[in-house]
């Protein structure tokens, strides 16, 4: 079933509301940290150390980042781990929001093209123009 220009306009309005909401959410995520967190345990080189019998040193909390094609690691204090987790989570949610925004924008473009085609065929009102199209 073909959508009427009024149906398409309504769908565009819904997508615009969703787009605005997504942009507002993304703007709120100013504090973020790109990277991954992991826990590391180590073994030292001392012959008489307890780590040689299976009890390793640690845990060490590590932030892994990548920038400009190069990876990096930063050790975190245990007290800062909760804050770092929240910032990494915020970054992942930001990235997911950007993917969703890109999808909504693609849907908007497709709907506007359909609207243009539908109104051209019908000789109806066009977006932003309040007069009848002359053929």
Give the uncertain stretches in residue-range form.
Answer: 129-135
Percentage of residues in DSSP E strands: 15-25%
* Helix-strand category: alpha+beta
Radius of gyration: 27 Å
Q: What strand line-up does the widest sheet have?
A: 1-2-3
Number of strands: 3
Number of helices: 2
Key attributes of the depicted protein:
135 residues, alpha+beta, three-stranded antiparallel beta sheet, 3 strands, 49% helix
Give a brief description:
The protein is α+β, with helices and mostly antiparallel strands and 135 residues long. It is built from two helices and three strands, in the order αβββα.
Protein described:
- By secondary structure, the protein is of the alpha+beta class.
- Helices cover 49% and strands 19% of the residues.
- It has 2 helices and 3 strands, in the order αβββα.
- The chain has helices at 5-28, 81-122; strands at residues 36-42, 57-67, 70-76.
- It has a 3-stranded antiparallel sheet with strand order 1-2-3, with helices on one face.
- A hairpin with a 2-residue loop joins strand 2 and strand 3 (70-76).
- Helix 1 (5-28) runs antiparallel to helix 2.
- The longest helix is centred in the C-terminal third of the chain and has 42 residues, at 81-122.
- The two termini are 26 Å apart.
- The relative contact order is 0.17.
């Amino acid at each position: 079933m073909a959508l009427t220009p009024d149906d398409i306009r309504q769908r565009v309005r819904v997508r615009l509301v969703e787009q605005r909401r997504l942009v507002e959410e993304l703007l709120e995520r100013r504090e973020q940290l790109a990277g991954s967190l992991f826990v590391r345990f180590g073994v030292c080189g001392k012959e008489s150390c307890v780590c040689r019998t299976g009890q390793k040193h640690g845990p060490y909390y590590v932030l892994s980042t990548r920038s400009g094609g190069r990876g990096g690691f930063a050790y975190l204090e245990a007290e800062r781990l909760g804050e770092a987790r929240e910032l990494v989570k915020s970054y992942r949610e930001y990235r997911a929001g950007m993917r969703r925004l890109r999808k909504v924008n693609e849907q908007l473009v497709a709907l506007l093209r359909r609207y243009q085609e539908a109104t051209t065929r019908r000789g109806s009102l066009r977006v932003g123009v309040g007069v009848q199209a002359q053929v």
